[in-house]
Amino acid sequence: MVNIRLISASTVHAAADDQKKEQPNLRIELTPWDLQLLLVDSIQKGLLFRKPKESQINCLIHHLKTSLSRTLDFFAPLAGRLATIKHDDNTISFFIDCNNAGAEFVHAIADGVSIADIIESTYVPEIVYSFFPLNGIKNYEGTSNPLLAVQATELVDGIFIACTINHTTGDGSSFWHFFNSWSEISRGFDCLSRPPILQRWFLPDIVFPIRIPNLICKQVLCSKFILPPLKQRVFHFSRENIAKLKAKANVEIGTNNKISSLQALLSHLWRSAIRNNKILDPDQEVNYRLLIGVRPRLINPPMPQEYFGNAVQAGSITMKAREVLDQGLGYVAWKMNRMVAMHTEEKLLLNFLESWIESPQLLTMDSMVTNALVTSSSPWFNVYGNDFGWGRPIAVRSGPGNKSDGKITLFEGVEEGSVDIEACLSPETLQGMDMDAEFMDAVTSYTTRDSSGK
């Protein structure tokens, strides 16, 4: 049995805190996009590196903590805690108190585990979950737990650097913005190439803090979600094969490149998952849920790309299982295309925010899982540019947070234009997909970068 040994655990504070003691703590109000995530898990992503050849590990750990401290100077929310205000009308408000209570940093060793054990296994080994800190902590527990935790796990020939970030502080774009910034500071940058914008985006004339019914404990206790036995597998798609899927989808539906590469790829995945899910009733409704970034789509007031917070709208399509299989790749991709187009309209986004404030709805795991594939993250996030000073990463994996049957996580692939899909599904479905010639014809062999990032 693999043993994970804890070497040390410490709290890392923002480096410049001593210079700010005379200033009041920055208070960041939370938006509906932030607040709806209180009852679910944090964001958990990690990068696998080859172990540096000319460095003592203790010096490396010290360097990571020092550079993290300096990075927190720019990302004050991640060094803070959630805070609450209880109101007389039995409602509660949450905000981020940037009090520099600090982030958690864990140094651990996975005895006997090598890089090959992680990247050459057909399924993601369960040991990978142990590389992530704060497992099982819900976002609302950020009142007493760090909003950021880092774990550096030594392998025989590598290092896995994992981050767990409270989801109320930001979305996937914000997560990788922080990771990219930390790697810049670690390489010796004095200033960030993209400083984060911490001020939250609100509707004009909004009255904040936003109040929500004080039902958190009741909802958590009533939740009966039980995670079924699942496995994870990473499917790698080359740029060339993705282009073929895009061309096929557009030809089938008779469009002029209106269907995107990603829409064609996800439709290809969905059709295989349905085909191998052993659905008994072909008229059963199935869902595909896609998280859509809205930063470039909000103009009144505008939202900058460097906005640090949540700015994601969920969209979904519902079809009968027989439709997904019988109508073909182009039809499914076109349905996805139309759904995405609808959710890029600013009026719809603003209507969601207004209606949520009037009637707050908090997401829970059991509310998100109903015969659905749920896609998060994006292949456009900068994953393989995270060089901390000894070379770029060779692989990326996600933690156990928010995992369910149908959770699909997207990453950029190691080669330019390629995409990795981390699929969390039942063992039976994944085994069926492995034997699905139509699906696997588009999957290519997984490759890695060497320690220099090539």
Automatic annotation (TrEMBL):
UniProt key word Transferase: yes
Highest taxon of the lineage: Eukaryota
Any GO molecular function: transferase activity
This protein's UniProt keywords: Transferase
Coiled-coil intervals, chain numbering: none
A Pfam family that the UniProt record links to this protein: Transferase
Protein name per UniProt: HXXXD-type acyl-transferase family protein
